[in-house]
Amino acid sequence: MTTSYNMTQTHSSTPVTMINPYDNNNINGLTVTAVPCLNSSNEKMQQLVIKNSTNTSFLQQNTCYYIKIKIPQNQNYDLNYGIRLMSLSSNDWSGADLMNSSNFQFVKYISIPKYNAMNIDTSTIWHYTFKDDRSIINAAIAKPISELPTGDGSATLRANKFYYNPDKSIINYYDNDGIIVTKQWPGTTASSNNFANKILVNELTIANSFENTQNDTVTREFLVMPKTIAYNAIYLYLKPIADDRNMRWDFTPNNTYMGRHIDLSAVKVWYGIVNTSAMPSASATVKSIGVWGRPQQLMCINGQEMQIGPSGYYELKNYDITSLYIANTATNDRYVADMQYQLN
After folding, report:
1. Residues 168 and 234 in one domain
2. pTM of the model
3. Environment class of 51 (CB within 10 Å of its CB; exposed 0-12, middle 13-18, buried 19+)
4. Which pairs from 172-176 meet CB under 8 Å and 24+ separation?
5. The last residue of a domain, from among 159, 179, 206
6. Averaging pLDDT over each range in 88-97, 115-124, 275-284, 294-303, which range is the top one?
């Protein structure tokens, strides 16, 4: 028996229906907070969570949302985030182990490339690897001894820094309080701030800075569609790297932060609802589509994000298509979609 197919066409230039963008003073806007995810050593990495001000579910089931986020770049490290939709309780906003939670809907990975790596002098950053009661930081910025701050208020300026002689034979290290760290080596009378050449080889390694800049940002756009439940958070899971273990950047009693991080004040996020493309009646099954639009224009097919390729055309054949969303997000965006369907 020959299968009979019908054809229909839909088109639109209507932009995504934007909900109020990033605005801390607007209850309908989204904000970004840092959730300190604990590990077994009670150390914390900065993990980002997008939520609204009331912590309610702003992502409803079977609705397609457009998310746009602007994130500052790190000076020397790529930031690779896994995007997860989550439904968080009030206890999850402060120290929950979101990293190892299995209750989420995965969306995709995004990458924030490092900033202008060619112009960074990595020789000015050293990892500090031996332990001491006063020196729990194991990464610090190194500066020549000629720049050592003195006088009133100088302790704050010296904090977490190495100051070295031009020949690097003597290195003075200042802890988180701006106080010089000293330690006597076993079997010697020399203090640890006189490292000589031995410490340069055995105790310090050249490495990159983990500081970030607010002035250079990357924008990422993506579509999400909750499949089974509504969600009240978008969790940006920062994939750990080996160097994260060597970074300490915030200290309060019983609360140590580790790893790469960004300045939350430079993060902005917008979101909106994507209008569904006109589908045939419920008694029909769409089997093939052809879409004309802008290259890299975002689509969501059966809840999965897709992009139109460089040719400006996307085609999918012999596949049961239950939902189709095409996002008009750029100026003058529009699309035309041909659909081949079969009556049930």
Report:
1. no
2. 0.72
3. buried
4. 172/145, 172/148, 173/128, 173/135, 173/140, 175/134, 175/135, 175/137, 176/136, 176/137, 176/251
5. 206
6. 294-303
